[in-house]
Amino acid sequence: MNGQTPPTLEKLARQALLRDEALAISALEKLPWTLFPALFKDAFNGRHSRIVKAMVAAWPFPCLPVGSLMKTPNLKTFQAVLDGVDMHLKREFHPGSEQLQVLDLRNVQHEFWNIWTGREDGACLAETVDERPVVKDLPRYALRRRHLKVVTDLCLRLRLNEEQACFLQWVQQRKDFLQLHCINMKIWTAPVCTVKEILNVFHPGRIEELELNLAWNVSKLARFAPCLGEMRSLRKLSLKNEDQSTFRLAYRIVDTERISKAFAQFSKLHCLQHLSIDDIYFLKDHMKHILRSLKTRLETLSINNCEMSMSDLKYFPLSRSLRQLKHLDFRGTEFLTSCLQPLGILLENVAGTLKSLDFQRCNMDDSQLTDLIPVLSKCSQLTKVNFSYNDFSTPVLKDLLHHTANLTKMSEEHYPASLQCYNASGIIDENRYAQLCQELMDILVAVRNPCRIFFCTNACHVCDKNCDSEECSENEEWLCSCWQ
Question: What pTM value is reported for the model?
Answer without folding.
Answer: 0.83
